[in-house]
Amino acid sequence: VLDDQPQALLQDLGRELMVYKFAVEELLTKLRILSEEFDFAHQHDPIEHITSRVKQPKAIMQKLRRKGIEPSIEAVREEIEDVAGIRVVCPFVPDVYMVAGMLGRQDDVEIVKTKDYIDEPKPNGYRSLHLIVRIPVFLSDRVEKVKVEIQMRTIAMDFWAAVEHKLFYKYDGEAPADFGTELRAAAATAADLDTRMTALHRRSQMSSSAP
Ligand code: 0O2
Which residue ranges make up each domain of the chain? Predict the structure, then answer.
């Protein structure tokens, strides 16, 4: 796929992706601090686990082509918002919004866009809170502002999304007709599970704070 890309662009992209990696590392540190410090202060860790990735050059070029955009570093910066991606999985729905709020209040974190698929799930049942944030990365000779996509979801939402993603790939978008209905029903079950687990968590918190 990349054979016909000018060598200079590929070199620039390699350098660019290094900067995206630094942005991810900065955000991972911020999230780990929030997780550990909140747990210390409130005996509850609002983050179950975190994963991250920087998109491969091949996938970036494919995405630009799919969007009909001429490949360039500027196009990557402006048109592709998920070059750098972080997924934060939380135990409960309120944790998702709390972590998003704590991150958004940090002086060097700018929230560029919020897509709340928890409040308004996608038609297929997908639920998650997506943030596009911009943070400064301090390099040897300049500061670069870098965009990172943060997907935040509960364990139940993550389970649903991981399985749906696998099925989608297996059938290459041509899944049997009843899969859509089944997946929407499974998403509703996952949402119900979130509600029940959150209620149990609240009760356990109240009983532990009772005199
Ligand atoms: P991958 O392989 O996970 O990176 P855009 O990213 O701008 O082209 P859009 O629709 O504006 O597309 O972005 P959106 O809705 O915020 O979703 C982007 C990412 O969210 C996807 O990235 C997925 O990771 C995840 N996502 C969105 N919808 C679904 C869904 O229905 N099921 C699952 N499992 N994940 C979803 P990519 O690049 O599509 O895929």
Answer: 7-209
What is the DSSP-derived secondary structure letter of residue 68?
A: T
Burial of 196 (0-12, 13-18, 19+ CB in 10 A): exposed
- Rounded-to-integer distance, Cα 157 and Cα 194, Å: 8
In total, the chain counts a number of residues equal to: 211
Closest residue by Cα to atom 37, ligand 1, is 82
Q: What CATH code would you report for 7-209?
A: 3.30.460.10
Q: What is the DSSP letter of 175?
A: -
Q: Is 55 in the pocket of ligand 1 (CB under 6 A)?
A: no
Read off the amino acid at residue 91. P
Tokens describing residue 139 = 């390099």
Q: What average pLDDT does the segment 140-156 reach?
A: 97
Q: What is the mean pLDDT of the chain?
A: 93
- Minimal-distance CA residue to ligand 1 atom 2: 165
Q: Would you say residue 2 has pLDDT above 80?
A: no
| Lookup result for tokens 């704590």 | 102
For the chain, list the strands marked E by DSSP.
49-54, 84-90, 110-116, 129-138, 143-154
| 37 catalytic residue (yes or no) | no
- CA–CA distance, 115 with 93 (Å, rounded to integer): 15
Residues 30-42: tens digit of each pLDDT:
999 999 999 999 9
| Residue environment code for 24-56, b if the CB has 16+ CB neighbours within 10 A, otherwise e | bebbeebbeebbeebeeeeeeebbbebebebbe
